[in-house]
Amino acid sequence: MEFETRAIHDGQEPDSKTGAVIVPIYLTSTYQQEAIGQHKGYEYSRTGNPTRTALEESLASLEGGKYGLAFASGLSATTTVLNLLKSGDHIIAGDDLYGGTYRLLEKVVSNWGITTTYVDIDEITNFSSAIQANTKLIWIETPTNPLLKIIDIEFIANIAKQNNLILVVDNTFVSPYFQRPLELGADIVVHSTTKYLAGHSDIIGGAVVTSNEELYSQLKFYQNAIGAVPSPFDSWLVLRGIKTLAIRMREHEKNALYLAYFLEKHPKIEKIYYPGLPTHEHHQLAKSQMSGFGGMISLEIKGGFTEVEKFASRLKLFLLAESLGGVESLLCYPAKMTHGALPETERLKRGIKDNLLRLSVGIENPQDLKQDLENALVN
User: What share of the chain has pLDDT > 70, as a percent?
Assistant: First the structure.
């Protein structure tokens, strides 16, 4: 079956008892057992819940994986993956990544005795030279947050396999509709389901998908032991969003590309980051490993922070808010919002300047969005 069909049907068969077309929300914490040691597949809803099972099966199908796991947030999904490591282990990560991931690695995981080396993504061969005797895992995002760089997943996957390392790819920015890292050699895919998968800015959630049975068994154990799982209602909301994922992603991309061409030529824009533009340094790579370019745009405004404040205050449709991937358009100022956990020197070193803004382009009418940006860019 094609992606659109699987998004509507996989893991979401009609209810066997009632024929209900939509997966029921099983609001139960526990389950009656037929006898001691005999249950019907569920014991306790931290361990498993039928609504969550439907979501996990759907997530696995969309990513082309065998096993899916759902979590209470993207960071809880990330934390669970990092529990695969032990004290003394070493991580290699791309230097452009979500500020919450950086905070987790530097302020939490480091306390476990695990170290991280950040590699300049623009020098991809540095991933090989960063490998140490105790390196166990490579963590990358592509496209990256917030500079929308593209990393060659197959290239990194080959490095990982040659050195017996686990490759984890955060696929949040484009969703499995546009990119499936497992098919390119990744071992684990991570998502914040809060974003495009749910798509309506109404839940917090995370996901992990893999085809590796051994990794899945460990991750499933940690999911239950740590307990950071989504509620049945939140699982149901993500399932609802997934049904329209393909349609929404096409609209997000169409609007983003339209606005990217407009912004690229605007005299007040110093630089624009969008992999769908032929001028993007990784445009050809993006075309080769993605079937579309997503709805995220980052840009630098001429005039520094003063002009950034003016621009943000004039917008009407683009709402100044954290997060991304919802049907409504959002504006984010990474230096103070998503990447506020980075020290200023580290932030600037990574290219996150004081005049950088990130747009999550929604599915409103593109002419209305363009007019909103034009009005905000007046002198």
Answer: 100
CATH number of the domain where residue 88 is located: 3.40.640.10
Mark which of 198, 219, 243 sits at the end of a domain. Answer: 243
Q: What is the pLDDT of residue 22?
A: 95
Same domain, 55 and 102: yes
Q: Does the pLDDT value for residue 269 go beyond 90?
A: yes
If asked whether residues 238 and 250 sit together in one domain, one would say no
* Cα 328–chain centre separation: 17
93 and 237 housed in the same domain: yes
| Pick from 318, 354, 348: nearest CA to 336 | 354
Task: Indicate if the pLDDT at residue 379 is higher than 80.
Answer: no
Structural domains counted in the chain: 2
Question: Could you tell me if 142 and 166 lie in one domain?
Answer: yes
**Structural domain harbouring 217:** 3-243
Asked if residues 27 and 51 have their Cβ atoms less than 8 Å apart, the reply is: no
- CA-to-CA distance for 268 and 266, rounded, in angstroms? 6
**Does residue 10 share a domain with residue 129?**
yes
- Active site (catalytic) residues: 46, 98, 170, 195
What CA–CA distance (Å, rounded) separates 22 from 14? 6
Which residue type, as a one-letter code, is found at position 199?
Answer: G
pLDDT digits (tens, 9 = 90+) for 184-203: 999 999 999 999 999 999 99
Q: Is the pLDDT of residue 90 over 80?
A: yes
pTM here? 0.97
- Determine the pLDDT at residue 81: 98
